[in-house]
Amino acid sequence: MVKKEITSPAKLKKELEEAKAELVSRNKKLKLSVKTEAKKKVDKKKAEAKKKEEAKKKEEEAKKKEEEAKKKEEEAKRTYEEELEEQLTEDEIKNFAIDKTDMDKLVNRVTEMIASYATNGILQNILWRKLKLSSRDGSRLALKLEKLGNITREKILENGRWTYLLLIKKIPISTISIENAPCLVCPVEGKCSTDGEISPKTCVYIEDWVLTELKTKKRHETN
Ligand code: SF4
Fold first, then answer.
1. Residue nearest to atom 2 of ligand 1 (CA)
2. What separation in Å is there between the alpha carbon of 192 and the centre of ligand 1?
3. What digits encode the pLDDT tens for the residues 175-207?
4. Which of 21, 62, 138, 144 could, after both became Cys, cross-link 128 (CB 3.0–4.6 A)?
5. How far apart are CA 53 and CA 47, in angstroms?
6. How far apart, in whole angstroms, are the C-alpha atoms of residue 214 and residue 114?
7. So where are the chain's domains?
């Protein structure tokens, strides 16, 4: 018969304390390991985010540089109209005509259309599309209108390409009827003169009336 060894309370207490200490130590190690792992994950995420951010920044910078280079390249380019102005004489520009077309009528019509856009002007390519004109004829016509003093052309960069904004300068008198003209009932008509303080050049009534006239005329033409 095996004799059962009886553990003394002091030994038991010691063993318990040792086991407890072992547990505490293991727990500490486990906590530390979890913490380290979590920190590693956070650091990894941070590094990835930083990398992504840097790549995005680089991409944006490259895009910006490319756009700037494109813009510079476009700015350096001469327009077709500038080349035409160099190649043609003033008379050739003024006498430009399109085959089988009444040029006086066309000049008046285009001038009226440009006038109806008042100070906003209209982009030449949009106008040529409305008139079903080729850009070759349109460009020559715009130069002609400018030389005749009817319009001004403003060179602008639109969607990365040079074009011209056409603005009215002089409306052809023949296109306007004097019916309803504000001057007919104007109380200061006697003091109004081209170079005076009261002048058609600065009169808002005359400007409104001319624009209304042109818009009405245009409406009648399209109906
Ligand atoms: S231009 Fe204007 S100020 Fe002069 S007469 Fe006509 S309405 Fe009057």
1. 203
2. 6
3. 566 677 888 888 888 888 888 899 888 888 888
4. 138
5. 10
6. 10
7. 76-173, 176-223
